[in-house]
Amino acid sequence: MNYFSTRGQVEPVGFADAVMMGLGNDGGLLLPVSIPAVTDRLEAWRQLDYPSLAFEVLRLFVNTEDISDEELQTLVTRSYATFDHPEIAPVVPVGDIYVMELFHGPTLAFKDFALQLLGNLFEHILARRGQRLNIVGATSGDTGSAAIAGVRGKGNISIFVMHPHNRVSPLQERQMTTVLDDNVHNIAIEGTFDDGQRIMKALFNDLGFKQDYSLGAVNSVNWARVAAQIVYYFWGAFRVQEATGAAAVQCSVPTGNFGDVFAGYLARRMGAPITNLVVATNENDILSRFFATGVYSRSTVVPTLSPSMDIQIASNFERYLYYAVGEDSKRLCGLMAAFAEAGEIALSPAAPGCMDPGMRTGSCDTAATLSTICGYHEAAGYILDPHTAVGVEVGARARKEEEVPLLCLATAHPAKFAAAVTEAIGEAARHPALDALTTLETRCAVLPATEAAVREHITSTLA
Question: Cα–Cα 20 to 30 A to 349, which of 16, 309, 379, 463?
Answer without folding.
Answer: 309
